[in-house]
Amino acid sequence: KGTMALMRILQTQATSLTFHSHQQQPSLSKSSFAKSMKPMKGWKSKVGGLKISVVGSGQVGTAICSCLLLRKVVQNLVIMDVKYNLAQAETLDLMHGSVLFGNPRIVACCDGSRTKDSDIVIMTAGARPSGKDRSRLAAMHGTMEIFKAAIPRLVKQSPNAIFVVLSNPADVMTFAVQHMAKLPKHCCLTTGCHLDSLRLRYFIAERLRVPPSDVQAYVIGEHGVSAVPVWSSVSIGGIRLKDVIKELACGEDPEKWLDLGAQITTAGASVGKVKGYTNWAIAATCMDVVEALTSDQGKILCVGTDMQGLHGLEHSVVLSLPCLVKSGGISHVFELPLTSCEKEKLNASAESLFKAQCSLNF
Length: 362
Description:
Elements: H1 2-23, E1 37-39, E2 51-55, H2 59-70, E3 76-80, H3 84-95, E4 105-109, E5 120-123, H4 140-157, E6 162-165, H5 170-181, E7 188-190, H6 194-208, E8 215-216, E9 219-220, E10 228-229, E11 235-236, E12 239-240, H7 241-244, H8 257-275, H9 280-293, E13 299-306, E14 318-326, E15 329-334, H10 340-358
Parallel strand pairs: 2-3, 2-5, 3-4, 5-6, 6-7
Antiparallel strand pairs: 1-15, 8-11, 9-10, 11-12, 13-14, 14-15
Helix pairs in contact: 2-9, 4-5, 5-10, 6-8
């Protein structure tokens, strides 16, 4: 009887605790913060097994495969390339170490046939930036021809897949995929300015001698020359940088933070001039996005999709803003409070991208 009585008391307490825990968690819709979270139309949570197809077995594609396997994010991986021998060789090279990756299934193809029913398709195939400034936009038309042949086939094989576009220029090519395949914008995105944001955090951390993970900063707009560092929201250890540094990246800018911001758009080119390409940072960035896409909780990452209507953008244009990325794609977009200068730069970035989109030959 004593045991029964004790169980009833514990059960009552558990019920009371559950009731109070629900009372203590007000709905997000009741918070003023909800006004900054813009829900993405059409998004639905997506759970289940994971099959990933990586299109392009060049330096970026193979680095992404390595990162995904080392982190044991994927158990069913397809490497697709028009050069089948290269795709097969990369597949075998990875398979030889498959015991260390959790025994995944890795296959190669050249025609997209083995990509059927992929959950995520990662596009890395395309023309490589070249010339003195290694402009991503200059590579656009070569990449477009590759996409015309590949995208319809890939979408037919995996109509419910989430497409992650890295091919240069990533913003414009994401627009091209959305347009060609009629894909909802929440499930067709680019890693975009997530890498630029990571670079900004690294550069700030180097200057201030703090860990990069403790720097919070975003770069928005184009993943390219018109990228916009949002200096007004940079914080380190809860301290907003603009509150302690006079004329931060504006006016006379006595501490020359604008020079540091300029490094974001030239960092890749400086590496590429020596190596001939960049691959490890973008591969790690892609892996971070894929990990978010496999999570119900997700992550807030500065990725790109069609942002028409946000920050007053009138045109349908793909650019990067902070987004909640989770299973099913992008569920929400965050509208950062921008200064007038940052708004002007974002509009200029959007205009540059819109002109590039208009020049695409479908």
